[in-house]
Hints:
The protein is an alpha+beta fold. The protein folds into two domains: 3-73, Glutaredoxin; 84-215, Up-down Bundle (Glutathione S-transferase Yfyf (Class Pi), Chain A, domain 2). Helices cover 55% and strands 8% of the residues. The protein has nine helices and four strands, in the order βαβαββααααααα. It has a four-stranded mixed β-sheet with strand order 2-1-3-4, with helices on one face. The longest helix is centred in the middle third of the chain and has 26 residues, at 84-109. The protein is globular. The relative contact order is 0.15. The mean pLDDT is 96.
Amino acid sequence: MSLTLVSFNICPYVLRVVAALNHLKIPYEIKYIDLENKPDWFVKASPLEKVPILFVGETVLFESLVILDYVNTLAPQSLLPNDNLQKALNRARAEFSGEIIGTFWSVFSAKTEESFKNSLADLKWYFEKLEGWLQQSKFIYSNELTLADFAYAPIFTLFDALKPLLKFNLYEGFPRLQEYSQSILSLPGVQSSKVENYDQLIQERIKKGDPFFLTQ
């Protein structure tokens, strides 16, 4: 059955699905749309009018972590543990990544010093949780790569794209998190998940908002 993933070029939630598809070597097509001018077929297909959506033949899946779960079932070897409780724990840790993605945009779109510092403090709070988990295992759930790790791929890809603009180290005080980020970024599936000129596109989008951190 054919798979068609619908995206816009810098969507972090799409990137996690693309990284997993690439890693698992599952054939798919990708179709990019302009979210400022959504085509009618997309509005009809996507209940929330958001990307990603995945066409599985004529059936439409939405929500990136749900799509990840489905994609995993197509692989010869699952990236999830066998035990149902452990599967749920793996999914819970994947869900945690969504909070960080939201906080990322708060940090790097903040227009005042106060809102920037508050958002950065929130981000560091999440980092402390991750650092604690990573003190116990190589990856976010265990010593083996699992599906949850792909949920974090866009976070590190975004941070990496912004590095040339930053005058501070986001990972200062979080050595295991920094190691983990490099492990995820080094995965071939993650490296090939970005569109051409991804870093430049991210930087241009951030700069357009005239955020406070660029005044530092």
